[in-house]
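Kindly review this protein for my students:
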Amino acid sequence: MRFKNLLLTLLVAFTAMPLAAQLQDGKIYRFVNKANTDIAMEAASTTDIYGTAMSDRYSQYWLAEKHPNNDAAWSLRSLGNGLYVVPRGTSTGWTFSASQNASTVLYCVNTNGNYYTFNSKNHADDSGCMHYATSQGGRVVGWNTGADATHWTIEEVSVDAAELEANWAELDKFNSSLKEENIVKYEAALANLFNDKACTQLKKNFASVDALKADADYQVLPEALQEMVVKVYTDNWQEDNFDRSKPYWDSEHAKRFRIQSIEPYSVAGEATEYFGINAHINMDNPLGITGNYRQHVFVIVEGEIKEGAELTLGMLQGHGLLATYENGIALKEGLNVIPFHGNGNTLYINYVVHTYQNGKFVNPLSGYNDLKVHIAGGNVNGYYNGVGDYLWGEPDDDDDWQYYEDRTNTESATILGKRQILHFTMWPTQVTDDKTGSTWIEQNCMSKFLPNNIQVPAGTPAKQKVNTMLEAWDRIHLSELATMGLLSKAEMDSLNNLYHRWDKTWKNNAGNIYDYTDEMYANQGPNGQTGIDYGEYFNHHGIALGNFSGYMSGGWRNCNYNHNTMNSIIGEIAVNAGSTWGPAHEIGHQHQKVFTVNGLTEVTNNMHSNIAVWYMGMGTSRVNGNEGSLAILYDKNYKNGRHFLFHAHDGGAQNLWTQTQMYYKLWMYYHLTGHKTDYYPILFELNRKDRMSSNNLGWIDGKGHASGTESMLKYYKQACQAAGEDLTEFFRAHGFFALMDQQERGDYATSFYTQTQAEVDAAIAWVKAQGYKENLAPIFINDAVPTPTYSHDGKTRRSYWDGETASGDNATIGMYIDLLDKDVKAEGYLYTLYKTTLTIMHEDAKGAIGFIVYDEDDNLVAFTNNYTVNLPATATKVKIYAVQADGTKVEVKSAAEGGTEEQQIDALKKAIAAANSLIGKSGNSRYATYLRASAVAELKEMVTDAQAALDNSDQSEYTYGAWAMALTNATNEVKTKPDAFYGVKELNHYEIRCAQGNFGYYLAYHENAVKATTSSQVTEKDNRRWEFVAVEGEEGVYYLKNVGQNLYITEINSGSNILLTSPVPMAKFTLLYNGDGTASILKAGEPNVSIYCSTDNTAIGKDPGEKRSQWRIDLYADNATEAEIAELEALIADAERVIAEAGNGIENLAVYVSDIELANLVRILTESKESAENAIADKDNVEDFIPYINNLTTAIANTTAQYVLKPISSDNETIYYYYLKDVDNDTYAFVDPNATGRYVDALGAGELDTENDNYIWAFVTDSRGGFQMYNLGYDAYLYTLSTSPNPLKADKAADAGAYLFSVDNDKKALVISEGDKYLYNQSGKGRIYTRKSYWKLELIGTEEGSLTSIIEIETEATKPAIEGIFDLTGRKLEEITKPGIYIINGKKTLVK
């Protein structure tokens, strides 16, 4: 009563003063928070400072004292506990020191107007300012001033001096119980009174309570311990409530919280770091006791605290999380005395064991016994124990909950489960929005739902609503730990006993979902350790924390759930499949790190969610409409070349549901159908030991760069290794092998991923080298066929998560129950293929779980768990297989090949229709997207013959099926040959018209954007005309230029508007001809991005395949024909050269075919030349010169490939002129007057210029062997400069060189040498070098005459007589006065 009377006195004596402008030495203050003006800073204990509801307790009053070592600084001393504030860093709780020292330095910093904060740095920019952290239950921590909760008003408080002195005296008396000598006395007295260290069995016999109280040992004890002794003696543990307006605590319930068994737990953040999961929390041992203003709590510990373990007392103010164990007060075996100076300190014991140290698992939990703890002092407050205590028996029930609810005084309600703690507010709470300042009463709280507003399944035992709800949370958490291999063997056995697999009849137990096998244990353990049972080293809890903002989230220590979600996650979680998702998803975030890279943060946790949905037994998996279906995976992702790691950075929405279903498929196949029930635990261990990376290539601008090898390809290899099976096609189907080049992928953090073909090939080669058996079944397995499945009782039908599953839209076959019998074989299936639609005929067929399509080179084309699928337009020659339950495949024949006569006739009719449809889009060169008439000529004949066979019922030559197959193959072959189409040509202008709207919309530049418009909308007609500009060196790749704007398309990306801004070529395109008179205009290198007409007619980048991305390309202006004719004329001239060369005599050729074969090649070339000449002569009636160009080009190439022309000397009546071609670089030798340095007037190599005589060569036999090389343009012979780099010069400064021409038969080309070195074209410069270039001569023509073999070189000393000297103009000279070239006695002579 002394404390109560003192408090009443102080309430009268304290007077709040106006706001203080600044501190004054010796004054007393209260600090009120700006974010919540009902909160003041309070000394809650001797270690913790909190913001609590404002009162006039001394613990909220602070004495300001000048710091003895710093005149500008302050120390704040609590009137509640007499200690000095010690500030801490960011997010770290502030604490106390017994005296003023360097750690208690504080600066009072004005932040804005009447608001202040404190820190140790004396400026407001510090991140260690005094902050009221609602995220930590109201703890005062270090933070920045960006939040209102870091700003405080300073209220001066007047305290009577006498009362202040009385307070210090009272504190001295209060603290005397903490003196070591007194504690020793207490312990001795307790040892005399009790038989056990926990003080639960009296040693002495007493006749009465009075006799007990007269005992000397009893009298040594403080009041709280004396009360404890009396309770033990009387076995009456009843006590008053801290709040006297509430019911008292009866003996049975009070004793539960006074004497408890405390269990050892792993340390949050230690073993979990190796597991690759978040820390979780050590709120494992709540006490149900509060420490209040100026109370001592006596914690008596019985049992050894072994090496490797620690025991601390933690305390929590308000609603939030307990600080980590090391922030608690260390406890020892025996008596511990802890003082409290504020109300509502909820107490927890942290009994933690360091099970993972220095990269090794140590100190198994089974080596640590439970401790028995007896708590005296403080007040019973209660908590809900859903697991029970061996000292007092079974778990709590609904009656217990109601009992606690009626009596508890703290803000939070704690419910303890096996692995999950629920921590929400008990009562409706006034909430203030930090940003807007608005307030409201949040009505959702534990008292609203527990116990009677919890929905439970029919048949739930009485008084078990709370436990049924709690078990749902535990089941979710346990299912995730089971998947990761983190439960103990006993926990796993218990879970398997409750939730096993059923056979196909739903009557018999088919086995466990998870088997913790010897193989699994053999792989478990880090750094050389093996055989580790992780349940021996990891057992602490996860926690669900109720909050008042956001929605749900998964954090490092806790998961957050807005109280407004409680109806679902508390009220309905035991009966509603959908209520499972949120908790499982957020807990899954805590469990995803080890198999997640940037871009998967909202994906991999969903694997846990779907598994938890199965464990809850109420529904099928979440496909999210049809977004996660196999059809969407194929049609939207695989067919368009998307990588598994696709996301909004592609320019489109992230389809996380096909990704989510991928992980779940593996779980269904290996666990739910029992094919390898240790699969995921083994896979997770592989993930742990060799982790994926989002940044193995380093960081640029804060973003990681990663390779495929260290990200998704690593997961692919590990997944195959865990299965012992080849899952290559499974991962191929899910996009793991698509290439990426610095592509950005991410969610909360992004990375740039690069995955090369070499990386993909290496990963696949590694899997193939293991010799694993291929398994295709996981591609198709699902639980989305509308076939009934049942809950864990085998009777209660599961609901369909998605309406699309219920209606059969998500899958037709592949239901997981059909994979239970691996011996079932697929038989009786046929297929038809009409245009791109593959249809599986399945009447009287059975056994297939899916169908898979390969091309003729066994590349994966398509897959489906339905009976129809649309193949890519490029898929022609394909093979169809049915996949069986054992993961193998059997080929499916076409209806034409294996069907009845009726089916064959139907197939033939479809084949004729498809061929006619193709033929109908041919023969009109106005349309670049139409087929050439010549390309379909044979197909027309075949259609005529096939139709005749059908009309005449004639199968004498071929069956209907054979006709159908032949016609289908021919049709497909035609439409997949790019040169079968007229195609686009450079220089031409085209109009590009969209198939959507029957070609009435033109691609145009309109209203400052690229759009699809009508002809009337675009007044400047050239704005709807386009030119395809070929990209040099990239066949079939074009830039797209708008004629009217004279600008190029700058950029095309998926989901983004197409930009037309560049005056120079930028974005590259290819054409995919669809065979129906249209083409898709694709972004080069990205087949999933094409020009697409959106619903508002804006042109964007999007997947091809729809009419809006199919365009007819109409010729508007033919500017190419004239160029084609010129090209053809040049080819005719070249053909004449080749004909002349090949007929020049065998002695001048190195020939690689027989005389007859060479003559035949010349004949074909001659015919092609003549055909081209005729086409030019009849040019007005020729629709396309490209075939003539192609034919003549081919004939020239075929002929020149079979011979090498050797040089003929020009010193005997005939001069032979040649071009000299470097065959490797496709350049021609010439003398370059524009070169620099030693290469001026020297041999170079470049593009042929037929107007430049510097490219023309002739050769003269040299008496030294070989030939001299004469250049017509320079009228000079080459010689080799003796100094490096040894160029071949033509400046007449030295004698001609002699060069040997020899034939290299492997290269079918000439090698030109001088001595032991060769003529080499080095980057367009000719030099004599140790390396070779390979050359060919092309004969230009001949003329009568001969070349002089040697130019005489005269010096001054040998100058001839004057007579007979002429300059190059023919003017006769009397004498030579300067160096130069002169005609002396009829011979050109160089005079130096």
About this structure: Residues 1-18, 648-652, 1349-1362 have pLDDT under 50 and may be disordered. The radius of gyration is 45 Å.
